[in-house]
Amino acid sequence: MRSIILPVIAAVLVAGACASAPTAPAAAPATPATGDSDVISTPSSAPEEPAAAQTEATAQLNLPTVTPSPTPPSPAGAEPALPVLAPDQVEIALEAAYEGFELPVFLAEPADGSGRLFVVEKTGTIRVIVDGQIQAEPFLDIGDKITTRGNEQGLLGLAFVPDFAETGHFFVNYTDVSGTTTVERYTVAADNPNRANVSSAFTILTVAQPAPNHNAGMLDFGPDGYLYVPFGDGGAANDRFGNGQNPSTLLGKILRLDVTSDPTQPYLIPADNPFVDASWNGQDVRDEVWAIGLRNPWRTSFDRATGDFWVADVGQNQIEEVNVVPARAAGGLNFGWPIMEGSSCFRAGCDATGLYGPVVDYTHEGGNCSVTGGYVYRGRAFPQWNGIYFYGDYCSGRIWVLAPDSAGGWTNALVEDTDLTLSSFGQDQQGELYALDYRSGVVYHLTLAP
């Protein structure tokens, strides 16, 4: 067994101790968000507790603060092309594209050339859109297997394997009736490409959740072909269960799994996972772990052009954050929770040396409460948006854009103040972007302002 020293990527490291500040205001409701079946526990309904002492607010009303971060990430040997527009020049409009969904939480496309869109409803169904028409029959209905008892429980994530056109395999992330997070593989029906074979369910992973919140729920295939599975810290408040910095649990982590090399096995451990056969601070680290120190990474995405990994982590009572990991990074990063909340100390006098800090964070002023991560635009309809990252807030409905600038840092701007309950963004095969309104059930297409 080897000991681990977490890697240092200087561009976005937080260094040194942080000062204390007043206790944060009470939290707004969390996003409908959301690990290892060592013990299956029944979720508790423990309420959120007041936040511990924090530093001063790091952002002004409506506008997240860009944390100092020199060189923007890029693949090894490549320089990122700067966007044509500065973020503060971006003007968008939201056009209602599809409606009638029940608590939509995600939109995905299978990259199979069909142009279809798949909308995940938290209640347990996946609807398919073919040639612009929502099909009457669901693609998948597992409503009898899930619970939506908690606001952050239900059917939460969907990912298609890179070779979906050949294998018909896809993966879902849901909370089962006992409150356990379950990742399953399904196969498309042999006689209908718009229906899944429900009996093909194959369990990949189950992880007991000690509380009904912070379940995360995202599933992402990286450019390396591996499945990335983010997990929250197990819920309640103040990392009550001590999972964020506990290397022996899957909670509060991002996992990296090989789910395609051997379809007869739930998953294999990639040989280059950063904690394979490793110990950290005298504790064994789970081989599945790729990164630690997460609170509730509800939505993540990979940049289609660069491979950079964007991780939006929901904060507690004061600060929301967006992180970006360069494609060249080998993993093993510590995102800091509960030592840090965003770029600020969560508790007074923290030592943040060696932690991986966000490129942007913002406070809960003005109705903000829960960051909803989005995508870097790589579509063709609006080339002036190329390379710009879109994200928003679940409670306030605000949408911001973030991009590298010519000074080697990041520029951020508020581009739309909506009344949406912004549960997720989505991306179609052409790279065009969508925003999902959780409460109204409408899917909006992001387009140019008139």
Name a few traits of the molecule.
single chain, 450 residues, mainly beta, Neuraminidase, five-stranded antiparallel beta sheet, 1 helix, 1% helix
Lateral strand order in the biggest sheet = 3-27-22-21-20
The CATH level-2 architecture is identified as 6 Propeller
Give the overall shape.
globular
Total of DSSP H or I helical runs spanning 4+ residues: 1
The level-1 CATH class: Mainly Beta
Overall average residue pLDDT: 85
CATH topology: Neuraminidase
Tally of distinct domains: 1
Helix content: under 10%
Structural class of the secondary structure composition?
mainly beta
As residue ranges, the low-confidence spans are: 1-12, 14-63, 65-78
The radius of gyration is 20 Å
The main pleated sheet reads as: 5 strands, antiparallel
Per DSSP, what share of the residues sits in E-state strands of 2 or more residues?
35-45%
Description:
This protein is mainly β and 450 residues long. The chain has a single domain (2-448), classed as 6 Propeller (Neuraminidase). The protein is built from one helix and 34 strands. The chain has one helix at 164-167; strands at residues 2-3, 13-14, 65-66, 92-98, 104-108, 117-121, 125-130, 133-134, 140-141, 155-160, 169-175, 181-188, 196-207, 220-221, 227-230, 253-257, 278-280, 283-284, 289-292, 299-302, 309-313, 319-325, 333-334, 340-341, 344-345, 355-356, 360-363, 371-376, 389-393, 398-404, 410-417, 422-427, 433-437, 442-448. The strands form nine sheets. It has a five-stranded antiparallel β-sheet with strand order 3-27-22-21-20, with no helix packed on it. Strands 5, 6, 7, 8 and 9 form a five-stranded antiparallel β-sheet that branches. Strands 14-15-16-19-23 form a five-stranded mixed β-sheet, with no helix packed on it. A hairpin with a 3-residue loop joins strand 6 (117-121) and strand 7 (125-130). The chain is globular. The chain starts with a strand and ends with a strand. The model is unreliable at 1-12, 14-63 and 65-78 (pLDDT under 50).
